[in-house]
């Protein structure tokens, strides 16, 4: 498996005296000036200098080393480099994958509602260990909904509950949500009973989640980018700064699970369009195996990021980075329309 | 008189009447109104005047290396605080002028760290001194002297400000062409004032090299886009930056806004170019507004009311809509890039050291910041530090010190 991945990535070939092109297979077009909106009978097409017939167009990005050539020469080299052809997908092709994801997300939301109830009861019991376990299960369910990057708007922010933008930061009296309860259970020393109001607010917000998930429109492009944004979110919000609970490592596992679901729904669309899916699956599997090993090595529970050994931490973070680099190819392979031509400034 | 004060005076005497041999190429001209925004590389002997109606290092063309050093006052009395500020000002004057020193007492610690040898060349060094709102709290009886409009930087939506990287009673802005000049300057600045100030946070920045295509091209930030293209210039800049005589003791000063903005550069590098350009509103390579060819071209929003060319929520469009109503909200941006290692997730800790100068934070910077709330770029950046500071007018003559108009008894 890895051999195949490396084989396609390491592609390089001479294109002239001293010039080499490194082509990233099936990447989105990055060389300015190679895409035009051609309003002819054939509709939108990718065209470039020295263009071959549209059906055979290669869309790729390239770096030309030592060519001594102009920007135009670099662009010409890019158009000739090996790459996958892209036929824009019809937006309707996304209906089934999005519907499948929606059904999944609503199931997870139902699970979250049950777990938020359990968390409320655990907080009221005053038993910190029990409350922590209940919080971990609720946090996991929300992470698995896979609503990355503001997909749920203010409701998502209320459930998750970062304190950064609040006037008083972590001491702000209006702070609530999963992060607030996490801080209460791991950092603060008061009784979990003090968190009952936050638990109540969480249940109230979670109760609205399923309706929001059913109603929120999801555009094809947004859904395609979700394939990598779920784990981008994890990297940025759960791993870049230490979390007091297990949320860093466990959220990575939850993110992998949600990404697997999104990728599975997109599999029929991705078939035959490039290798982003194969590369993503390869790295997701490897990352999953690493997460399982970490869990086993820490007594069957996800550890905090602070207690990872150096080797564990480096593997986890490095493989997450590699997974994201693979996943970034997904949206490009799922384009429904070539980038619109930008009008010129008149006058 | 404290020990610190005494050793400072002795050092000053040892350094006194320094001055570099040979002709010193003045770059005061480069800080004038009509200076190009990019300074050509100068020799080590380039010097920017310390004294003047305004502090140096604000409107002048910036040099490539920057250090911000936020200090908290720990002086036990107002008198010692003022002495500390005077010492900082005197040290800054010396360092920006340059000096030679000789070691006379071999048994004593030398009067200078020697990091730059025995000839300390000015290297276009500027050291600006700013005061945070917290300096004017109850500790030193300065509340009545706080410049109108100076507040603690509030939290904006999507901020994740860490107080250990933000605010502070004083902020030193050091700018020079070479990093070792700054490292040396900071060491020498702090030696006499350890009993008066403690370092709260520091951050080093750098400017991208001038890679053209023209001398006026703005440098690139770490997203790969040019930053600072649409800065005000000439008389308009003077009006937007400096406080006028009506400001009383604050006249000739300016408000400095610092925002340490972490850029999630790896994530950004996974975003398609058209999406990147749509978020910014400019073409990455040339810096031209979308649909244009030249960096300095007017984006002509009037011809694009629906955002077909430049999205309505593009950064440049929200930041500066170029309307009559927003003209007096413009700010002078003097941003630098920073790189400070890796974060806990193994990601590169890189970003933008956003620095802006304006005559009114409320009318200018905050109005812009409110418009930018929730812009698409928000997902790729996290503001983690910074603060608001007031930079008083420059020192008058050899006997004056920066801050005398505000702090002198």
Description:
The complex is a heterodimer of chains A (347) and B (409). Chain A has 347 residues and is mainly alpha-helical. Chain A has two domains: 2-80, no CATH class; 91-333, M75 peptidase, HXXE motif (A middle domain of Talin 1, Up-down Bundle). Chain A has 13 helices and five strands. In chain A, the strands form two sheets. A three-stranded antiparallel β-sheet of chain A has the order 1-2-5, covered by helices on one side. In chain A, strands 3-4 form a two-stranded antiparallel sheet. The radius of gyration of chain A is 24 Å and the shape is globular. The N and C termini of chain A lie far apart (55 Å). With 409 residues, chain B is of the alpha+beta class. Chain B has a domain at 3-233. Chain B is built from nine helices and eleven strands. Chain B has helices spanning 3-15, 78-97, 179-190, 234-241, 265-268, 273-280, 315-319, 365-372, 404-407; strands spanning 65-73, 99-100, 119-120, 126-131, 170-176, 197-206, 254-263, 332-333, 336-342, 348-358, 381-391. In chain B, α2 runs antiparallel to α3. The chains are: A mainly alpha (347), B alpha+beta (409). Chains A and B meet through α9 and α12 of A and loops of B.
Helices and strands of chain B, in order, run as HEHEEEEHEHEHHHEEEHEH
CATH class of the largest domain in chain A: Mainly Alpha
Low-pLDDT ranges of chain B: 1-40
Query: Any idea what the radius of gyration of chain A is?
Result: 24 Å
Which word captures the global form of chain B? globular
Oligomer description: heterodimer
If strands are numbered along the chain, what order do they take across the biggest sheet of chain A? 1-2-5
How far from one another are the termini of chain B? 18 Å
Measured on Cα atoms, how large is the radius of gyration of chain B?
22 Å
Report the uncertain regions of chain A: 1-59, 80-84
User: Structural class per helix/strand content of chain B?
Assistant: alpha+beta
Beta-strand proportion of chain B? 15-25%
Give me the CATH architecture of the largest domain in chain A, please.
Up-down Bundle
The biggest sheet of chain B amounts to: 5 strands, antiparallel
Mean pLDDT of chain A: 78
- Helix proportion range of chain A: 55-70%
Beta-strand residue percentage of chain A: 5-15%
Tally of helical segments of chain B: 9
